[in-house]
Amino acid sequence: MLSLITFLPLLGALVLLFVPGDRIGLLRKVALATTLAVAALGLTVWFQFDGTRAAAQMLVEKSWFTIPGSTIDVGYTLGIDGISLLMVALTALLMPIVILSTYDHIGKRVKEFMVWMLVMETGMLGVFLSLDLVLFYVFWEVSLIPLYFIVGVWGGERRLYATIKFFLYTFGGSLVMLVGVLYLVYNLGTSNVPAIVQQVPSLDFDTQTLLFFAFALAFAIKVPVLPFHTWLADAHTEAPTSGSVLLAGVLLKMGTYGLLRFGIEIFPAVSVHYAWLFMALGAIGIVYGAFLAMAQSDLKRLIACSSVSHLGFVVLGLFALNESGLRGSVLQMVNHGISTGLLFLLVGMIYERRHTRQIDQFGGLAASMPVFALCFVVAVLSSVGLPGLNGFVGEYMILLGAFLADPLWGVIGVSGVVFGAVYLLSATRRVLFGPITHPENRHLGDATGRELAMLVPMLVFTVWIGLQPSAFLGPVTASLDALQLRIDGAKDARTAQAERTPAIRGERAALVPAGGPQ
Amino acid sequence: MNASTFLGTLAAQLPADPRAPALTAATPMAKSDDLAHMFESAFQDGQWLVAAGPMIALAVGALLLLVADIARPLRAMRPLFFLAGIGVSAALLFGQFSNEPGLVLEGTLLANRTTALWGIVFLLSTLLAWIYSLGYYRGEESKLSGEHDFLMLVTPIGMMLMVGAQDLLIFFLGLELLSIPLYALAAFQRGRSASIEAGIKYFLLGTFATGLLLYGTSLLYVGEGTLSIAELTRMPPTSAISLFGVALIASSVFFKVSVFPFHLWVPDVYQGAPTPVTALMATGTKAAAFGFLISAALLLPAQSATLVAVIALLTILVGNLGALMQEDLKRMLAYSGVAHAGTLLLVVGGLLASDSPDATANATNAALFYMGAYVFGATGAFGILALLENDGARFTRLASLRGLARSRPGAAAALALFMLSLGGIPATGGFFGKWFVFSILIEADMIGIAIAGALLSVVALAYYLRVIIALYMQPAPEGELPPRTVRPLSAGVATLVCVAGTLLMGIMPSVVTRFLP
Amino acid sequence: MLVLAAVLFGLGVLGFLLRRNVIVVLASVELLLNAANLSFLAGARMHSTPDNLNLLGPVFAVFVILVAAAEAAIGLAIVIALYRLKQTVHLDQLAELKG
Amino acid sequence: MAEFLFYTMSIAAVLFGIGVIAAKQPLMSVLSLLGSFVCLGVIYLLAQFQFMAAAQILVYAGAIMVLFLFVVMLLDLANPELLKEVPLKILGPGKVAVAVAVAGGLALTSILSTRGTPAVGSEPSVPVQSGAFDPVDEIAAVIFTRYILAFEAAGLLLVATMVGVMVLAKRQRDPIERGG
Amino acid sequence: MAHLAVLSSPSPLATEMDLLWLLPLLPLFGAAICGALYLVTLRQRARLAPSQAAHGHPADGHGGSAGGHGGSADGHGDGGAPEDSHQGPGRYAGFVACGAVAGTLVVALFGFAQLMGLDAHDRLLESGTWKWIQAGDVTIDVAMRLDPLSSILALVISGVGLLIHVYSTGYMKKDPGYAKYFAFLNLFVAAMFVLVLSSNLIGLFVGWEGVGLCSYLLIGFWYKQGWPAEAGQKAFVVNRIGDACFLVGSFILVSLIGTLDLAEIGAAVQGLLSDETARGKLVAAALLLFGGACGKSAQLPLFTWLPDAMAGPTPVSALIHAATMVTAGIYLVVRLNPLFAFSETVLLTIGIVGAATAFVGATSALVQRDIKKVLAYSTVSQLGFMFLALSVGAWYSAVFHLVTHAFFKGLLFLGAGSVIHGMHHEQDMHKMGGLRKHMPTTFKTFVAGSAALAGLPLMSGYFSKDEILAYTFGMGSEFNSVWLVLWGVGVVTAMLTAFYTWRMVALTFFGTERFDVAKVHPHESPKSMTLPLIALAVASVFGGLLGIPGLIAGMHGIKNWLHPILEGGEALFERTFSRMPGVDHGAEAVLLLVGAAIGVVFSLIGFRRFAAGPQPDQRFREGRPGLFGFLANAWRIDRAYHDGIVQPIKLLAFLVYEIVDQFVIDGAVNGCAALARGAAGRVRKMSDGSLKGYALWMGAGAVLLAFLGLILKHG
Fold first, then answer.
1. Which of E683, E690, E697 to mutate to test the interface with C (most CBs of C within 10 A)?
2. Which residues of C touch B207 (CB under 8 A)?
3. For the CA atoms of chain A, what is the radius of gyration?
4. What is the pTM of this model?
5. ∠ CA A416-A420-A423 to the nearest 5 degrees?
6. E256, E327 contact by CB (below 8 A)
7. Which one of C16, C29, C79 makes the best mutation probe of the E interface by having the most chain E beta carbons within 10 Å?
8. How many Cβ atoms sit within 10 Å of the Cβ of residue B331?
9. H/E element, E389
10. In what order do the strands lie in the sheet with E139-146?
């Protein structure tokens, strides 16, 4: 089942290779059909998933190859637990929409584009489903290539700069992770993630720290966490709409997912020790991203910068390392995928109509495109974290978790709520409201049926998650609870240690309260 | 020619297979009393023929080819002889997997699964380079294809001798048997000044390196009184004179594998030489030299592990930087080859640092896999360049790749794949090559070196990506497309083989790894 | 003998590094090879006893002579090819390939 | 006597060596090389390497040198000015210094590293069974047993050389200049 | 509806009543239907649009005058022609919306009746629970709870809301966004119900931000002018600042109490007071929540959005920015009264903020020319009064004033709307005058509302305001003299209130007609608008009966009704101050009389000065230009924010982006690339084509290797 869902897109890509390149309609249909089939499979997985089990399920375990000169068996191991379930669902949901969105803006080299899209889907699903470190790494890097092409071939004016920067930046991080992967695999004698999770505590703390940071660097670049974020704005700005949607919707989640699965879950002790650092980066990232967004005149770039801010929330919540923080972050990954994806889609729509993304080129669009305006406002409100929509639930849980873990970063994070409203609403106003200053904007066509077909499902999820988050958090609960137990164990161990050597550790421990109020 | 006489000599040697009882005491000290005894001790039970079989097959093939070149009616059979030589040799090598002859000829030659695998790498490299050479040459050169093919077919013999050598003399002869044909091949396009220049540079520096090697070997001999690598590594030399000798030998080998600061010839020669020859040089020579380097690595003092690793890093750095802004593709690939040599040298560093009993075996595995992936990637890349050169334009310029994705989607896709493999992106063989190399470093606890190496390969990717950018992302130059020359089917097949190999090693590495010892 | 070998080796290197006439450079290489031969033979004498000769040195030297011949031949052939094409044997005029 | 002869020959060999690299005319270089070879041959003889001495004179001085001379004459006749060496000055003092340092460094290092090993060659002849350190029969025995493969390889090497030389030295009929 | 799957049974103490969900859901469905109607209308219009374009009909029709108010009712000209506005299915939106709100009124009355039927301490109706968020550390279950406090607010919302809905059907009749308007308005009602009925602080926050959203949408309803959209944004953002405080406050409560159930928070406060740290945190939480209330209820320092919010349609101002939403802050404090009762610091803060706001608002209202601005500043000021009441433990007084204020301020806004409607969207009082002849009903009802606002005796505002002042006086005289100062401020404010109220009446309805009679024909509004006016006028006049002081009638309806939910707060208050503040009947009588005198006297002064026309304004402006400008611009607070906060932040954002991000961080990234390129050039120079050079490197390398080898081996 999981193999099928992972490789079905690849199969679709292969089929596409045999479709003549000039039959654009057929190409699109095949691609769409493939992604829809994957979405259907995703739904099946969702319903088959047993939310009461913490461990990964629907395992596919085969031997892939044995590392020469050792007995280490690298497995082709797929499995899904609550956390990956959400990510898989997100991917499966977004892909058909993304494919639909390409109908407008991808007119040249459609075949290649669709092939890359489908390859990318396989890569992304693989990342979320792999339970083998090596396999994960392979998928992790494979998913870079399609985006490299998508930005590089179908991107905007500075696409080459953007795509190289994106690729090298993330690749550099990945390579450091590769060393970490190798170290783990060779020292623990297995590449199976659950096994590694069990065995890592046997390594000494300094080694764990180094490994943790080797992993965290790669993920931090991908997320992106604060000082590593500059590739994102460029990549987003230059990418075609569909690329941006995927980038924001899923690819960045690979970073946060990685932080959770391979950072926190594998190295709970280190995570507890350095939680303050990531909370700080996350919280500062929230505010910093908001400031960046305020300074933008390009709508797409603004949303890209807002991603920095929003992912700051996710990082903040993850490293709050308590129940609400983790849950909020997991949910917020989905939320960000939906709302920011939505925003990128919407920006793409007006870009197609006006071929500019400069905010001051718009204004008053609500008059000529009321339905569009409605969707835009909902998307913005979801991003801003309006209660009742999805963004709020995640943000609230994250901020609560962060506050409980360390009030300082929690409060700084809260300030992001204000700044978020400032730049997003300001952009909304300048695009949608006010008088129409550019005559070209007077006769822009409103959202078409196909565009609505892309937007409405996402809007539905926006509201659905906002009103009934438990439907989405339910399957995650068991997995997160198990993770929480490990984290709490690490915290307890640390507290015990701090008590033994108060002079050294006490200072830090005072800054980071070890537990919740209970 | 006197080829036939040689054939005769060889043929005469073939039945010399006295089923003599195996004798031990393979000492280099010749006992002057009993000649028969010497024969017995040397030839043992004929295992040496099994060991040398692949080489003999190649030699026979090569000589037959030469004969066919002279004898007009047989001309058409030249490719057949070439392929037969390779095929029989490969078959014999596969035979060695199950039946490892081990040390033969008084311990001067080793033939086991490892050397057989190396041999296969060499054959592959030769075969691919040869296929790409079909139709590459124009005018008068094309009339010399018999000679060309002969020289090409001789080189893998030298390579096999090098990796099998357990005696410095054998190594030296293998090296020469590899080098001298390559000198000639580099300058093969006599009508092209670049080719001549490449030939002369390669030759002069090569002989200089040979001089260093010989002098070093002689000093080592003065110091230790033996040429047997096994003995030398068993008790690593410590005297100053021996160490100096080792240093000179190392310099010479480093020259062959193009390690900083012995790499400077590489870009010039690779650029100037005919592209198929470049492919052979880049992959075959490097593989052979590394095969030897790893088996003889323990000649180097263990303390030099860090030194070697640092040299390796410098090599990677220099190679990558040299390639970074390169506009000439062959030159870029040459620098990239330097970087790859550096990466492989990391294996040697790791091997020296490791105290594991399996260190050599692991290092060999890593190097083998890496080299295998490199053979597919680099030969494929050079091969495609060779094909493109035939279109008449100056296709080795980076800019001339623009629009190729439109005019030749297949070639462009293959080239892009090779670039990704050379860059070590997963799902290509290059990734697992890199993986195994780094794992050697990890096992040797050289984490810092590993991270540095990893980061340096980011630079590498930058220029591989430039190729892809030119292929796919930049607009085609104005004007009509370059003329499409008819491609030999063989080149397509070779490219497909490279693509398949690259992908297979990247997706199912077990296909290859299970052959590793 | 070893000292002589070393001196000859040094001279060979010097010649190789300084001279630009290909033929002289080749001659310098021959010096290098001779230096090697000399020390091979010195080594052979050092490691031989009257009853037990170490023959590896002379054997190696024989092969060195053989290879030297081969190299000289191929080298001179390239020189001729070079001369035919560019009417020069000076290395300084070979800098088409660089960068 | 032997000692004196050894040193004389050594000095002569070195002087010839200097001649090789210092001569203005390539012809003189080659002739100096010849001289050097002959001196070495004498030294071999003194050191009781009769076979090697013979090989040195015959193969080296005979065959290889002739090859050299042949080429030199060929080219010299075609264009007498061509082979003239450029004065060292053009090289620039820096490069020369580095070159001297490198060469000297290599030589000095090897000389220094020989310390502690017996000075071979100058001592009087040693009585050995066969009267030489390189008895032909035993050398042959080693070559045809232990190094049989090397020997065969050497044969192939010569063939390859021959083919190579043929390819390279063949007269070009219609030079095609191609890019690269 | 009655039993949704997601709902679970209420807590045992409460009486179950799932019907309560209807309160938010009815208007929510109403909003959905209206929205759908709007979209359908849009589609139809879009189908017509091409033909219009073909006829050369300019898409953005009438450009509008400088003030932006054109000829049609909305005056903002939609893409389609205004005559279309009632052709689509959107015209049914009014019925739907009114129906939905009427339904809520029925439910609210029903619930109220149920509560009446219960014992005082059992007065709690609770619906099933909506299990919203399970975050592990805290679980957020939201139920709808109707208790005495929320029942009052529910009645106000549904009652006043219904009237305003009905009024809107007339006021917005010709607006092309008619259906959209009702969708938003219904959505607002729904959110407001969530706000007041939620059992959970975060559920309350849903409504809290929900009403903020509707406020944002409705302020910016006429978005084609730039400034309404800006005003809406400002309202949202300023509220967000308060909301951020609210969130942090809620976090503190979670960390202390572990739950956000409103009832449990109240109950838990007492238990925590013995712990000094917890007490400090509680103070912080209270102040932060109060900060949230300041945002929503437009108190200093966050009040600046409310005057700007007048950019929305006038009924919106009436409903949202006078009657309901802005009182959410009051509701919050009353709801969590124990949390705000135990600390003198908190109470004092609330009192000072309230009094200061009241004063600032009143002074600012003195010189406004825009009739809606006067009312807006007046609202700010009256809200300040309510907070003043909260600061002295007179929670029910605050609620009392809230209710009366909802009546009379709603009335005044609607009346102003009627005037504006009749005056073709003229809002400048200096250009009105003498309207009592043209708009008699509006005039009469407006006077009734003004009387209440000015605190003329026996009017509703009189009782509620004077009660507040009396308690403040009592607090000041008995416990802390700071409140005496506050009382003084309150009294002055009351004077000013009476003054500006009658200035407004005089300028609008009396004197000469200062508009171009030839062009503008003021007319009375239609029945749909005047009937609500009359209803509210009645309420304004007699609303005071709800809380007639004990002095007169010996009963206080609201006090008694609210008493059960205020016991917790009162207990804590008494713990802090030993007893509740109060004045004896004698003093109360004096204060009542003084209050009445103030109301009458200053009303007369105001009316007399301006009955003839706006000349006193001019004189004031010429005589004291500085002060006039200061007051007209609301003490220049908005300006200060703009210069001191908004601009610096913009500059900071610019600097962060250009310098930190682009130059430093991205510069470092690109610098790496540049470094590599530079080094690449050097490396390539090494390979300069010179054979000699290569050989030299090789030789040097060999020497180096040899030396290093020797060194490594032999130390």
1. E690
2. 26, 29, 71, 75
3. 22
4. 0.88
5. 135
6. no
7. C16
8. 25
9. helix E371-391
10. E15-16, E125-134, E139-146
Tell me the two tokens of residue A295. Answer: 């300074």
Q: How far is E573 from chain A (nearest CA, A)?
A: 27
Q: Which of B217, B300, B304, B324 to mutate to test the interface with E (most CBs of E within 10 A)?
A: B324
Phi/psi of residue D179, nearest 5 degrees: -65, 160
- Taking an 8 Å cut-off on Cβ atoms, the answer to whether E658 and A434 are in contact is no
Bridge partners of E96, per DSSP, are none
Rounded to an integer, what distance in angstroms lies between the CA atom of residue B38 and that of residue E582?
Answer: 127
Task: Determine the Cα–Cα distance for residues A62 and A56; give it in Å rounded to an integer.
Answer: 15
**On the CB side of B422, how many CA atoms lie within 13 Å of its CA?**
38
Q: Are strands E125-134 and E15-16 parallel, antiparallel or unpaired?
A: parallel
Hey, what are B273's tokens?
A: 């030489």
pLDDT digits (tens, 9 = 90+) for E608-644: 888 888 888 888 888 888 888 888 888 888 888 888 8
Q: At A385, list the tokens.
A: 């974290």
For C24-54, the pLDDT digits (tens) are 888 889 889 989 998 898 888 888 877 778 8
At residue B46's C-alpha, the angle toward residues B45 and B47, to 5°, is 95
**Nearest CA-CA partner of A336 in A316, A318, A312:** A312
Q: What are phi and psi of B102, to 5 degrees?
A: 75, -150
Task: Report the 10 Å Cβ neighbour count for E671.
Answer: 11
Angle at E701 between CA E698 and CA E702, to 5 degrees: 90
Coil, strand or helix at E125: strand
User: Does E707 lie at the interface with D, CB-CB under 8 angstroms?
Assistant: yes
Q: Maximum CA pair distance of chain C?
A: 58
Answer whether the bond into residue A227 is a cis peptide, omega within 30°: no
Considering only CA atoms, which of E416, E440, E415, E412 is closest in space to residue E428? E416
Q: What pLDDT sits at residue E50?
A: 53
Phi-psi region of E549 (alpha: psi -120 to 50; beta: other; left: phi over 0): beta
User: Is C in contact with D (3 or more beta carbon pairs below 8 Å)?
Assistant: yes
D68 → closest Cβ in C72, C83, C92: C72
Tokens of E26: 């009815």
Cis peptide before A370 (omega within 30 of 0): no
- CB-nearest to C98 from E689, E692, E695 is E689
- pLDDT for position B118: 92
Contact A469 E132 (CB under 8 A): yes
Reported ipTM exceeds the 0.90 cut: no
Show which of residues 155-214 on chain B sit within 8 Å of chain C, judged by CB atoms. Answer: 168-169, 172-173, 176, 180, 183-184, 187, 190-191, 193-194, 196-201, 203-204, 207-208, 210-212, 214
Determine the length of chain B. Answer: 517
Residue B115 phi, psi (nearest 5): -65, -35
Top mean pLDDT of B27-36, E548-557, E634-643 is at: E634-643
Structure tokens belonging to residue C39: 């020390």
Q: Torsion angle, CA of A296/A300/A304/A305, rounded to 10 degrees?
A: 10
Judge residue E171's burial from the number of C-beta atoms within 10 Å of its C-beta, 0-12 exposed, 13-18 middle, 19 or more buried.
buried
Opening angle at CA E282, ends E276 and E283, nearest 5: 95
| CA–CA–CA angle B365, B369, B372 (5° rounding) | 140
> CA dist B332 to B192, B350, B462, Å?
20, 27, 12
Structure confidence by residue, pLDDT tens digits, D99-116: 788 888 877 777 777 666
The answer to whether E337 and E566 have CB atoms below 8 angstroms apart is yes
CA dihedral (E234, E237, E240, E241) positive or negative:
negative
What beta strand segments (E) does B23-164 contain? Answer: 102-104, 109-111
**Residue E145 bridge partners (DSSP):** E126
Per DSSP, B483 falls in state: P
